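User: Round two. Same drill as before: sequence, then structure, for each protein.

Assistant: Same drill it is. First protein:
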Amino acid sequence: MRLGFVLPHIGPAASPAAIIAAARRAEELGYDSLWVTERLLYPLAPRTPYPAAHDGVLPEAYRYILDPLGTLTLAAAHTERIALGTSVLDIPYHNPVILARSLATIDIISGGRLRVGLGVGWSVDEFEAAGASMAARGRRADEFLGVLKAVWGDDPVEFNGEFYQVAPSIIGAKPVQRPHPPLYLAAYAPTALQRAATLADGWNPAGIPVEGMAQMSAALHAMARDAGRDPDDLAVVVRANLYLTDEPIGGERFIFTGSRDQIADDIAAVRAMGAAELFFDTTFTPVGATLDGLLQVMGELRELAREESLVASGR
């Protein structure tokens, strides 16, 4: 199972220097990937509850966030081998032709290290600010993926859809990875899982108990099989929204919250489930509020995962 880390482009630790330092340190430690996320607004009176919190309140860290693609470009310039991913970009906030060019540029700059995680968004306030509509967002997402693949394909590019049209054109910046960088979708509803099973290269869940992920992963693979695809071609790439505590959390707890022993148990469970990759986001845990704390926990988690792997293998 590959391991990754979210770059410090969110919250009090975010800065160009922190991004460079964390990217270099992750590569030194042997991490496989670096990731960024997207948050457009921190609404003062949100009309949509934040789905990853019991109280629906956005974390304070989201008050300050650097652009995800700019962050990946900076990280690409200061690393050599580590993969660079988005988890996730919200489809409704982007134009597919413009985004395809931006992502192709990052893949070119990085020498073919880009991975693209996408979602359909959830915040009414953000949709409104982006001039987007929640109506038919599933059909729009299907078509959006088609435009990305068309633009990344051979010239001349042409696309005629319900929502997007591209006249026959030369769009010359093509990704290094052919036919395109890996596409992962954050999907939770059955229709969204179907989209991942038929149109993407994998699934990018977060915040779901391991038992739920296993059930949804099985459903994803069954959908892929029914669509004539090889289920083994679909990767499960898990985002771990981490919150570390000194003492174990008793009773009910969110996955990847608690003591280091509890986090190790979660890592083992995700590995046993068959995930291809797991990456950690320390944005919301106190140790991620400073660069020094982030670099320290980056090393601790790498060693924790290594020890867990050795135990699992019986060494």
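Second protein:
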Amino acid sequence: APSSRPPTFPAVTNRRVVLGAALWTLSVLFFIDQAIAIAASRRPYSLATNLISDLGNTTCGPAICSPLHTFVNATFVVVGLCHALGALASHRAWPRVRSGRLGVELLAIAGAGLIVAGLSPENVDPAAHARGALVGLVALNLAMLALGWSILAVKPRLGRLAQGAGVVGLVGTGYFLAGSGAPGIAERIADYPSAAMVVVLGATLLVSIVSQARPAVAPG
């Protein structure tokens, strides 16, 4: 029988949830490491016209030359693992509704897609890279919609923020697939809001767990 207790978030705070939240928070490396690689690029790198994947391109040609390509591709794999393992570890934190279960499953799929993209650089295996990246993008944004929906009743602002990130990301994905004249901007609109939201959700979980763990101060 379904529980009559009102939903809470986090619903459970155990060591696995702490691990999952920490992994999601650690995925901020996705942004930090890209900034490092852009600064080290030996060709002018444009956020408007260059793809994120160009930073992992293993060749050094007239248009693209990323000396930290191994570092970037390793980052994709590590962040993909953070997303997927974080979802598996923290699944009990989410209200036990279908959207919560669906959200963590989709985020695990998104992480797997990013791992495939990192293991298959754009110039080494373009087909596998494109499939992994597309699956990752779509699943990541749908995950934010589902996770946001699951906590709307208990964390309305956070829920709406997650859903907003998912909507913007899906619009950006459509813009990117339509062949935007500024593919770098389109890809970042598709990816960055929801990727950042994973970090926000992880940090929020950690803060909530720490707050619950503090002993109450007796009045005196």
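DSSP finds seven helices and no strands in the chain.

User: Perfect.
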